[in-house]
Amino acid sequence: MNMLFFIVFLLFSLLILRLGVIQIVYGEDAKREVERTEDITVNKSVPRGKIYDRKHRLVVDNEPKKAITYTVPNQFDQKETLKTAKELAKLIHKDTDKITERDKIDYWLMTHPDEAAKKVSKAELEKYKDKNDELYKLQRDRVTKEEIASLTKEDLEVLAIYREFTGGYALTQQIVKNEDVSTEEYAQVSERLAELPGVDTTTDWERKYTYDDTLRSILGNVSNGLPSEKMDYYMSRGYSRNDRVGKSYIELQYEDVLRGQKEKVKNITRSGSVIESKVLHEGQRGKDLVLTVDMELQREVDKIIEEELRKTKMRGGTGLLDRAFVTLMDPYTGEILAMSGKQYAYDEEEGRYKFSDFASGNFTTSYVVGSSVKGATVLTGYMTGVNTPGKTILDEPIIIKGSKPKSSHFNRGGYIYLNDHTALVRSSNVYMYKTAIAIGDGQYRRGQSLIIDKEKAFREMREHFSQFGLGIRTGLDLPGEQIGFRGSVEEAHGGNVLDFAIGQYDSYTPLQLAQYVSTIANGGYRMQPHIVKEIREPSDGKEELGPLAQEVQPKVLNRINAQDSWIQRVQGAFWGVFHEANGTGRAFASEPYRPAGKTGTAETVDRGTGVWNLSLIAFAPYENPEVAMSIVVPSAYVKGGSPNNINTDIGKRVLKAYFDLKNKKDGAASEETNEDAEE
Question: How far apart are CA 131 and CA 470, in angstroms?
Fold first, then answer.
């Protein structure tokens, strides 16, 4: 017993000695370690830049809203984090729609440790003693549906909050809830921040569209957090996981401009917990964009399309008609004045037909457009040397062995000599057919096979059409632009070359048509279309717009290889289309704004049914064009049905709306000038 007491005495003596060494020798070091703080700098998001129209009307704004956030600690503690989530769940309602089945399994295992431990045997514990991932996988696979179903509504809300807590990196602020945060929730959380480590109440923002759905498909969308498929790309550029980024069109294309400069905050931590935050650099919201679009004109064009589509569909033979597109462009600068597209489709949720914005269809969808491209065909004839201004060609039915006869709509069986001017005015198919044959070094003999170098014909015509922007990218400052469909050369026959010359083989976008007619209207310069006019610095609140940071200048992409007199010849023919007795666009003859242009009709197939596409290109006024227009109405009526003129009906109203708004603004400016003079 004495020996045992002696041993115990020695052990206690050693323990006391060791404690003394720690306290006396290393005490100060331990104290400094406990009190040691770290300075860690993090970035906080700022609101995005605003978007205005060309008249400086606000189009896209940032609407502030209440938000509840969580800053992930430097040293993660699962129990403490779960405890905080449970406390917060008592104060707010959290939507559980984003919870996955895997989330539920992980949460059940975390909150039922004893039951989870029983899901693996001792043999398995021994087998996987150094492989925790394998053990956890076994436990996860053995969680039953009944056990998952045992999670209550309250459990799921805690899980939804916990899921947000653990979704980011250390010391980065995570949005826990920013939708429908009630005043009561905001107040209760604010009062108990001391009991909720890492939780904070702040102000978040969301995009507000002052013109509702107008131009909505072009403005684009903003993500709620980084898209998973581009996570690495954005993270490498300094973004945080919960940052918003542009997902489409303007928001995506101008992300670097709209994102702004983040606020830099220094978090002072002790033992992994944030004890103080200091702002090192005030953030600045993103720069503002001024669009080339006039939203008042845009709304008017949208309204016209909807009314004309609805009116035309009430007629017979328009079963597949469901969309129409209009692009208005300044032919000298490439500025998009309006870009409208509407789709009329059945909404399953609402149980009715309704219109949706499809403005993006002007450059993301393409169609065979018919005779609208004949101006390019005539100029191609000049540029390749097979035709000259004033040259006459016999308009007659083209009879090719093994094929159906091809003829002009106005001349099914006769023989009429036409020059280039009249061919465009009356929309002669045969004039274009014979031009294409000549380009392909071909020979046409009535009733015999067509001899033609189709490879050369397609190559020459496509190369020259591309000078106008047909069949190539227009250079629009938006992502997703399509070039249209190119018919196969290898599988084509001679007749397809003829179809190409009248716009019935390759397909084009409405924007390509607008660039093409602008090129003719301005004297041969292909201008790059753009939808952003200016980039402005964020305003300081004293004025609507900040200082000019960058102005987008007009850019000439190329000059077509044509003499001025040739272009003027086609311009004159376009005037004749609208004003001469046999012109296909005579509906415009009495319009006061002096338009010129070309109509188009193309026979094609839509969903297995033969249909006719209608198109129209125009510019006005003729002498000094200030607006160029393209209209495409796919499947305007079915083959064999009653034709309609929806393309010209839309065109007349759109040009009238443009000049009415212009005159209205000019009148208002004149009155203001007179008032200033009187003062």
Answer: 62
Residue with tokens 């000059």: 559
513-536 pLDDT, tens digit per residue, is 999 999 999 999 999 999 999 999
Helix or strand holding residue 233 (H, E): helix 231-235
- Side-chain-side CA neighbours of residue 214 (13 Å): 20
Spatial separation of the C-alpha atoms in residues 148 and 410, rounded to whole Å: 74
Write out the two tokens for 66: 């209440």
Tokens coding 61:
């704004």
- What are 71's two structure tokens? 């800053």
- CB of 258 within 8 A of CB of 275? no
What contacts 443, CB < 8 A, 6 or more positions away? 437, 450, 451, 452
Per residue in 447-481, pLDDT tens? Answer: 999 999 999 999 999 999 999 999 999 999 999 99
Cβ atoms of 596 and 620 closer than 8 Å: yes
CB 358 within 8 Å of CB 342? yes
Q: What is the mean pLDDT of residues 338-361?
A: 92
Query: Of 242-246, 492-496, 515-519, which gets the smallest average pLDDT?
Result: 242-246
Beta strands in 315-387 (DSSP E): 323-329, 336-347, 352-357
pTM of this structure:
0.82
Q: Is 45 among the residues known to form the active site?
A: no
What is the CA 63 to chain-centroid distance, rounded? 21
Pick the closest to residue 283 from 49, 502, 10 (CA basis).
Answer: 49
Report the Cα–Cα distance between both ends of the chain, in Å, rounded.
118
Q: Put the strands of the sheet holding 273-281 in their side by side order.
A: 37-44, 263-270, 273-281
Residue 241 and residue 228 in contact, taking contact as beta carbons nearer than 8 Å:
no
Q: What is the pLDDT of residue 649?
A: 97
pLDDT of 91-129, one tens digit each?
999 999 889 999 999 999 999 989 988 888 888 888 887
- Out of 366, 371, 407, 428, pick the active-site residue: 371
Per the model's pLDDT, the better-predicted residue between 542 and 171 turns out to be: 171
Beta bridge partners of 61: 208
The reported pLDDT for the residue numbered 441 is 96
Predicted confidence band at 31 (pLDDT cuts at 50, 70, 90)? low
Nearest Cα residue to 522 out of 476, 477, 571: 571
Q: Exposure of 1 by Cβ count < 10 A (0-12 exposed, 13-18 middle, 19+ buried)?
A: exposed
What is the number of H-type helices and E-type strands within the chain? 24, 20
